[in-house]
Design a protein that fits this description.
CATH superfamily: Metal-dependent hydrolases
Number of domains: 1
Distance between the termini: 26 Å
Shape: globular
CATH topology: TIM Barrel
CATH architecture: Alpha-Beta Barrel
Structural class: alpha/beta
Bound molecules: zinc ion
Strand content: 15-25%
CATH class: Alpha Beta
């Protein structure tokens, strides 16, 4: 068992939705075999696109939460770029209602601005009253510094709230379809420069200092952004950051295939950026691994590179990619990896029922991981409605065996139970 308190070997007994006993030789009415496995707090994903309402041909709360549970997640934060956007209490309430029957806890983010267009603030207080803690216009950057300042100031009146920025300056990123660099020149694909991310991160750190508000950076992808966040933390600013698995496992060279499966915003960067993300994860600069799970219908992702929508699936591969690419090579310890996937994101989103030590009294949100099993990613066998994983055919080490949500086995031996 690995949690925030350290590693030990034991059985875990669950009753009435809670962990009631941890020790040797425990039995119960129903037993899930965890031989050779790690029992950990359920994983928490700060960044998923469930596409409901409005884009249910790509994903729904139901299918996305099943993919999450198979990936070991017991809680996910749904992003607001739905149709309509999550800028309205009624829309947020509908997502939360759908989440009541889901395979994991579904938490709704709320927009920073109405319709995510970066102008008038969304009714943040009303959304907060429904339980929203993470405010973001994700998919779009809050480009206007005055608007961002007001959002940060407003968030200070909402205890536990955090403003989360999709840091890409729209004027610099413009219509770029991949990272701007040697590969974009060679391929003739318009680029999105690293500077588009860096300038917004730098600006928002200054605004965080000005307002005293918490700021969170979604899907950090550049070495410059990692350095800025590291320096801000050293100055004591209340800043957190997440990185997505594709930004520590893939580079812009993948785009040489012209396959839009590799198109994502912010884009896949260079080897140097990948190394910086890994360093940031290892030294605590980056607080969380978040998937940016972004399903798209097959026909959308089969359009030409520059026309295809950006985004890739992540929920069912995030843990295995972390184990294979970061833990096995010694970049992170297993406990560090689980911290990045569970209790640190739980703390950012204020999810007190998740990421807790596996100890008597804790709500039984757990995942049981076999760290040694190897498997190959098969897009046709994913629980997500979409198929746009960039990892088809990739061999990974480590897989979720069971996922338990508030005491209920949702995934058993890798299979979703509902
Ligand atoms: Zn984003």
């Amino acid at each position: 068992m690995v949690d925030a308190t350290g590693e030990r070997t034991a059985d875990v007994r669950v009753r009435g939705g809670r962990v009631v006993e941890v020790g040797a030789g425990l039995t119960g009415d129903e037993t899930l075999d965890a031989t050779g496995c790690v029992v950990a707090p359920g994983l928490v994903d700060l960044h998923v696109h469930l596409r409901e309402p409005g884009m249910e041909d790509a994903e729904t709360v139901d299918t996305g939460s099943r993919a999450a549970a198979r990936g070991g997640f017991t809680a996910v934060v749904a992003m607001p770029n739905t149709e309509p956007a999550l800028d309205d209490p009624a829309v947020v309430a509908a997502v939360l209602a759908a989440g009541k029957h889901a395979c994991c806890e579904v938490v709704s983010s709320g927009c920073i601005t109405r319709a995510r267009v970066g102008e008038a603030l969304a009714p943040m207080g009303e959304l907060y009253d429904l339980g929203v803690r993470l405010f973001t216009d994700d998919g779009a950057c809050v480009a206007d510094a005055g608007v961002m300042r007001r959002a940060l100031e407003y968030s200070r009146a909402l205890p536990g709230a955090v403003v989360a920025q999709h840091a890409e300056d729209p004027d610099l990123a413009a219509s770029g379809a991949m990272h701007e660099g040697a590969w974009s020149s060679r391929l003739g694909i318009p680029g999105r420069p690293a500077a588009a991310e860096d300038v917004i991160v730098a600006r928002d750190l200054i605004l965080a200092e000005l307002t005293g508000a918490r700021v969170h950076f979604l899907h950090v992808s550049t070495s410059g952004a990692v350095d800025l966040v590291r320096a801000a933390k050293a100055r004591g600013l209340p800043v957190t950051a997440e990185a997505a698995p594709h930004h520590f496992t893939l580079t812009d060279e993948c785009c040489a295939t012209f396959d839009p499966i590799f198109k994502v915003h912010p884009p896949l960067r260079t080897d140097r950026d990948v190394e910086a993300i890994k360093r940031g994860l290892a030294d605590g600069t980056i607080d969380a691994i978040a998937t940016d799970h972004a399903p798209h219908p097959v026909e959308q992702k089969e359009r030409p590179f520059e026309e295809a929508p950006a985004g890739m699936l992540g929920l069912e591969t995030a843990l295995a990619l972390t184990l294979t690419e970061l833990v096995d090579p010694g970049v992170l310890t297993l406990a560090d990896a689980l911290a990045l996937l569970s209790w640190r994101p739980a703390a950012i989103a204020g999810l007190a029922a998740h990421g807790q030590p596996v100890a008597p009294g804790a709500i039984a949100n757990l995942c049981v991981v076999d760290p040694a099993v190897t498997w190959e990613v098969d897009p046709l066998r994913l629980a997500s409605k979409a198929r746009n994983t960039p990892y088809a055919g990739r061999k990974l080490t480590g897989r979720v065996r069971h996922t338990i949500l508030a005491g209920e086995p949702i995934v058993v031996d890798g299979d979703a139970q509902r």
